[in-house]
Amino acid sequence: MNREFQQRLQWIRLYEQVGDAGYVCRRCGISRPTLRKWWRRFQELGEAGLVSLSTRPKSSPARKVTPSHELLILELRKTRNLGARRIQSELRRLHNTSFSLATIHKVLIKHQVSPVIKYRTKADFIRYERPIPGDRVQMDTCKISTGLYQYTSIDDCTRYRVLRIYKRRTAANTLNFIDCVVEEMPFPIQRIQTDRGLEFFAEKVQKKLMGLGIKFRPNKPGSPHLNGKVERSQKTDKAEFYATIDVQSEDVHSLLAEWQHYYNWDRPHSAHGGRSPMERYFDLSAETPFSDEVAESYNRSDERMQNANYKVDLKLARLKRGL
């Protein structure tokens, strides 16, 4: 059997032994939807269900782009301003249809479609990333619709993300989200970086981070570019996910979980040369520290309660240094 089959079999055997999905996901670096998927297949078909099914079409030699396919490609470009790679990804995700980038380009050229609008050039920004997974996790919230807010966390190095939807931005929801992030990130978290939203500065939130041995590093006011990865990823959610569903649907939470899994495991990322966040993590897994190493490097005395008011917080920092 191939390597992928052996990995999946190890996941299942470990889950049979411990019965704790969270432990298995953290230990093996997989998400809960992935474990559920292969556990269901194993229950239905046994070990045969762990073999990857072929995605090769039954009749591909003379396949051509039909007018309906052309309409799909043109609609994705017109309504969502997607490039060829994103169109390719969305056709596969939403319509179970695969075309090469060259084929999609031919369709766009045939219909004389204008190039994608670019809002920045290389001279406008300098790309950076932390060297190892978990070194810094950016966290933010954004409003999706009335009474619907998305909490987002993204690892600065791998772009691995955890997403949740809540009715309000509150400290209680922030505490719940932190639990989700710690449980689902496949590596230990050293720092969490946020804007200066009040939901992140509640005393119980900061104490929880201290208890978990995670450093709290809020940005200066008026500097959203420092949280650029999480801000950009939320724009991706609105363009590629929320544009395709009814946000008032009762299934919105499960649909978001599926989107999170797709983003982390299958969606190609330009910053990683077309690889997914999990593929990037696997490349760096040998360099990623274990939880006990991160805990040893955390010094509780270096941390303090921070204030959302930046000027007040600077004064508090000076007082702490003077003591």
Give a written overview of the molecule.
The chain has 14 helices and five strands. It is α/β, with parallel strands linked by helices and 323 residues long. It has three domains: 48 residues; 44 residues; 166 residues, Ribonuclease H-like superfamily/Ribonuclease H (Nucleotidyltransferase, domain 5, 2-Layer Sandwich). The protein has a five-stranded mixed sheet with strand order 3-2-1-4-5, with helices on both faces. The model has no long low-confidence stretch (mean pLDDT 88).
List the helices and strands and how they pair.
Layout: H1 3-18, H2 21-28, H3 32-45, H4 67-80, H5 84-95, H6 101-110, E1 137-145, E2 148-155, E3 161-166, H7 171-184, E4 191-193, H8 198-201, H9 203-212, E5 215-216, H10 228-241, H11 252-265, H12 277-284, H13 291-297, H14 310-322
Parallel strand pairs: 1-4, 4-5
Antiparallel strand pairs: 1-2, 2-3
CATH C-level of the largest domain: Alpha Beta
Largest sheet: 5 strands, mixed
Question: Over the alpha carbons, how many angstroms does the gyration radius reach?
Answer: 22 Å
> CATH topology of the largest domain, which one?
Nucleotidyltransferase, domain 5
Tell me the CATH superfamily of the largest domain: Ribonuclease H-like superfamily/Ribonuclease H
CATH architecture of the largest domain: 2-Layer Sandwich
Secondary-structure-based class equals alpha/beta
Counting structural domains, the number is 3
What is the mean pLDDT?
88
Low-confidence stretches: none
Helical proportion, percent range: 40-55%
DSSP summary, beta strand count: 5
Encode the helix/strand succession as letters.
HHHHHHEEEHEHHEHHHHH
Q: Helix count? A: 14
State the strand order across the main sheet. 3-2-1-4-5
What's the N-to-C terminus distance?
A: 63 Å
General shape:
globular
Q: Estimate the strand proportion.
A: 5-15%
